Amino acid sequence: MISIQQKTGTPKYKQIIASIENAIVSGTLKKGDALPSINSVSMAHKLSRDTVLMAFNELKTRGIVQSIVGKGYYVLNDQVDVTQKIFLLFDELNSFKEDLYSSFLKHLDKNIRVDTFFHHFNYDMFSKLIHENRGAYNQYIIMPANLKNTHVAIDSLPKERVYILDQMHSELLKYPAVYQNFEKDIISNLNKALPLIKKYNRIILLFDESRQPEGMRIGFEKFCISNVLEHAVIASLENLPLAKGDVFIIPDDKNLLRIIKKIKEKNLVLSQDIGIISYNDTLLKELVEGGITTISTDFNKMGEQLANMINTKEQVKIENSNALILRNSL
Amino acid sequence: MISIQQKTGTPKYKQIIASIENAIVSGTLKKGDALPSINSVSMAHKLSRDTVLMAFNELKTRGIVQSIVGKGYYVLNDQVDVTQKIFLLFDELNSFKEDLYSSFLKHLDKNIRVDTFFHHFNYDMFSKLIHENRGAYNQYIIMPANLKNTHVAIDSLPKERVYILDQMHSELLKYPAVYQNFEKDIISNLNKALPLIKKYNRIILLFDESRQPEGMRIGFEKFCISNVLEHAVIASLENLPLAKGDVFIIPDDKNLLRIIKKIKEKNLVLSQDIGIISYNDTLLKELVEGGITTISTDFNKMGEQLANMINTKEQVKIENSNALILRNSL
DNA sequence: TCTAATTTGTGCGTATGTATG
DNA sequence: GCATACATACGCACAAATTAG
Description:
homodimer; alpha/beta; Rossmann fold; 3 domains; 6-stranded parallel β-sheet; 6-stranded mixed β-sheet; 35% helix; DNA-binding
């Protein structure tokens, strides 16, 4: 079933892969059948176990065969053209992901499968998910979010298969990435909005340490200090007396809804009495209350750039552009 | 009591352990009960005696069971803290999932891990995901969406571990479920809105056959016929001249945005010239254009009920409630 | 009391994949 | 490519305790 030409340009492990693929296409191997064991192949063809292993591993990550410890390798799939499987680790499921994810899939080559996981800002889960899925995927796209020491887990993956998404950490600089520069972006976008911000007495960042990137808070504070603005960073809207002349930066939509309702309850007028800058643009913000001003990265572009990087196998670092979208709420 | 999946990644001895743990947690095995003998298990499931022995030994060292030579194994301890893994298969990632998913996690017992997959309305992917993950999870929660013949794949899973979510098919009635009755719901909610609908000349359902449930279209047509309304079902907004007097039912948010923009472009007035009923409520619809009227199931409740069903091991069918939320757009 | 069947417990050997250096 | 340790799975032989007849 397996034929190896000793002195030819093509690597032996690729010859093994081709042999097995042919056997599946020709029907010699059917779904559920066992492959010859690593030992028997390496003995019969006088190859190193590692060479055979490399071949079998690639067939595994492509989803064509499956390995069972203590038993052997089994054919999973008749279709040999399933080229790649991608492991995509998000922080949490929220509506910002919708654009990113659909744009990523849209621009990805066909018959690539993407499996999606969520770590929920929990390091144990983050680490467990990476370790459990090591070896099963061709590419690992990871959103480290604001977790610490993510490199401990990530470094256990094959370096050339890892991509970092959204937040960049200093220990992860060795990996290709599509990321946002939160500190820079918030400063430059708030500066663009400065004339409008100056209408207000005080600028307030609603900041949940466990979910938002630190760069956002740092950039915010730098901006406020360099422009001598009265400012505050608060963790929640609870017990906050809504004062005329406040402008809020709000990174999540639940609080956005809450604050707009509060504003209406108190008969305050958006953009006159209270200002709102929302973080991360989603579909309907264009229409809410005549339009919510947002600072947002272009999630569609982020997904597209990530897909292109995977398609072309380029290993680069791309800072995703970030824009201020001025609307009625400021 | 013991279920073993032959060709799967999870080792057989671990499957035996999990089976027995589940039997204890679910009450099938009580304190003092005898386990089936090593021989009977190894014969019944065609396993090596040693494999079964390995599993029973681990249960013994964990203090869950006790062995008596010449007699058998007996359950010592009711309290088994099993960290469960749940397989959750969604159709696609969209913002409606956010509430459902977060509410599900919130009400689930702690240290349960949920892995999420998406089939994208693709049967091959649906089937592959189920087969590849068979045996690796304690529970399988599956959104069959509008795919046909989903039971072929689903029936290969252990029956008592399967839960159906959102859409119910006749071949899946044997499984517990939290579902919507789309046909009934759209009829009753449109009837509630009938006085307002009668303001308009024509009612139009925007219906993407590949994504939306068939019951929605069937219910819509029944409603229109029984109330003698001029109606239409269209697949896309392209080439649609927006006519005064039309009321639209719009199941997805991209088209909702498109139509509202079109309405504004043409200087038509929402709820006077054109009506909108949106399907599936999300956070910001309350605020868009003074409020968008929606027909929606309560996704928070759906997640909660699903979590409760898993927590209590009840195997029932729950029709999730569905409501008309009247707002400015109708 | 003897016997046969069943059960747990132990030891040894072989084959497979996995991980590391 | 090689060597080594480890995890999983299967099979066989034999000992010791228990139970049913």
